[in-house]
Amino acid sequence: MFKPPPAVKVSPSRPMEPPGSSLFNDHAADKRERLKSNVGYVKSMISRATPAQQAKNEKEFNDVVADYKTLRNLKDYCVHVDLDAFYAQVECLREPKYTRLPMAVGGDSMLSTANYPARKFGVKSGMPGFQAKKLCPQLVILPCDFKLYHKASWSFHQVLSKFDPDVRMAGLDEAYLNLSNFVADAPDGYSMNTVAYDGECQCNRPRKDDITEDDEVISSGDITCTICGMAQLYFNCTMNFSPGIDGMIRMLRMEVAMRTNLSCSAGIASSYYLAKVCSDINKPNGQFILPGDNDALDTFILSSPLKLFPGIGPTSSNSLAEFGIKTVADLLNHKKNLRFMVSNSQYYLLTRIVAGVDCPPDETEESTNETDNGIDSGKTVGTESTFTPTSNQAELVSLIRSFAKSAIESAKGDGVTSVGILFVKVKLGSYDVHTCSQKFNEQVPLTNVELLQNVSETLLTKFIAKQGKKDIRLLGVRYGELGMAPLSKVQTGLKSFLNKPTVGGRCVKRRKLEENTDPVTVIDLE
DNA sequence: TACATACAC
DNA sequence: GATGGTGTATGTA
Question: Which GO annotations describe the biological process of this protein (predicted)?
Answer without folding.
Answer: DNA repair; error-prone translesion synthesis
